Amino acid sequence: MVVNKRPGDIVQGDKTGDKPLSEVVKSYIAEKYNKPGAVYLGVVHRLDRPTSGIVIFSRTSKALPRLNKLFAEKEAKKTYWAIVKNAPPKIEDTLVHYLKRNSKQNKSYAHPKETPGSKKGILDYKILQEFNNYFLLEIALHTGRHHQIRAQMAAIGCPIKGDLKYSFDRSNPDGSIHLHSRKLILTHPVQKEQMTFIAPPPEGDALWDSCRL
Questions:
Q1: 3-class secondary-structure state, position 79
Q2: For residue 212, what pLDDT band results from cuts at 50, 70 and 90?
Q3: Can you spell out the DSSP letters for 91-160?
Q4: pTM score
Q5: pLDDT of residue 17 exceeding 90
Q6: Which of 131, 137, 92, 126 is nearest to 210 (CA)?
């Protein structure tokens, strides 16, 4: 089950007590397929709450470990869109940082060199479009570190629009950040067919509406 998550939704339940997307999807499955009793749904991966875009869930317990393996072994290819302040130093580039997570702050810090407790983070970016004061980037992840895109973009002086935690100067009115999980390519865990999913960015936002490529 693939869902285009709205910014502000949480994928899995947390201490806020807000209804998570996983429960919304379970309700949808129960109604659509007229399923009595408890509905199974496995959470394969998550997106940060203020982020939008593709989230995949497992409909069966058999498929869940197979999907987990695809993500763990980097066989699921994820592409993001980000709208950032300031022009990156190059039109396209590969960024390598060493990310260290601070659990108390729920934040990761990107260092140019390895530090104790850090993990290597690698991503590719390229500029897709330029607006007044902003740039649309396409980002491909090679590693899946905590807040990786947010931390690495901030480290090169290109914070994501609305991301106060990572150096943007003001928040978006709805609490979102302009980071969107745009595309996912993976092999179906049972049918073994390659599948490609593309999610449009949130509607009703002037910048995102200008990015509908």
A1: strand
A2: low
A3: SEEEEEEEEEEETTTTEEEEESS--TT-EEEEEEEEEEEE-SSEEEEEEEESS--TTHHHHHHHHTT-PB
A4: 0.94
A5: no
A6: 131
